[in-house]
């Protein structure tokens, strides 16, 4: 007979039950922090996608920095080798994205493409009544980045 108690004996002891419940609660909290059904549903993203960052509600999203830019998309998910960049607009879904929304998302997706080089990048814009996909255009991203020096010069005039 072993001097050390078996795992079953530990689990059935009063302290063992406390330990098991604490481990279960900790695991559930960790999983819940990585999977938020409300955020996943808002952007029609698969429930098994990992939420990398979220700037909705009381959450403070991660600020991403790249190519002289910084930004915080409303949500960023990873699903396998795909990064899904999402932004929410509290208005009805239009027939097409405005130029502002298109350029904002291209900047976000371009930053993600540079930061997650081995991943495919997808974009989604959530509206009150639906979700619209948006595609990334590396050429447009490069053109927008090229505007930064002239924008900084123009800003000095204000």
Write the layout of secondary structure elements.
Layout: H1 7-12, H2 14-34, H3 37-42, E1 50-54, E2 64-66, E3 69-71, E4 75-79, E5 82-88, H4 99-115, E6 120-127, E7 130-134, H5 138-146, H6 148-156
Parallel strand pairs: 5-6
Antiparallel strand pairs: 1-4, 2-3, 4-5, 6-7
Helix pairs in contact: 4-5
Residue share in helix:
40-55%
Report the strand count: 7
Order of helices and strands: HHHEEEEEHEEHH
Write down the domain tally: 2
Largest sheet report: 5 strands, mixed
Mean pLDDT: 83
**Beta-strand residue percentage:** 15-25%
SS field, number of helical segments: 6
Strand order of the largest sheet: 1-4-5-6-7
The N- and C-terminal alpha carbons lie at a distance of: 83 Å
* CATH-defined fold name of the largest domain: Alpha-Beta Plaits
Radius of gyration, whole Å: 22 Å
Structural class by helix and strand composition? alpha+beta
CATH class of the largest domain: Alpha Beta
Keywords: Membrane, Transmembrane, Transmembrane helix
Organism: Spectribacter acetivorans
Transmembrane segments: 12-32
Protein name: PD-(D/E)XK endonuclease-like domain-containing protein
Describe the structure.
The chain is of the alpha+beta class and 158 residues long. It has 2 domains: 1-34; 49-156, Alpha-Beta Plaits, CATH 3.30.70. The chain has 6 helices and 7 strands. It has helices spanning 7-12, 14-34, 37-42, 99-115, 138-146, 148-156, and strands at residues 50-54, 64-66, 69-71, 75-79, 82-88, 120-127, 130-134. The strands form 2 sheets. Strands 1-4-5-6-7 form a 5-stranded mixed β-sheet. Helix 4 (99-115) crosses helix 5. It is globular. The model is unreliable at 27-34 (pLDDT under 50).
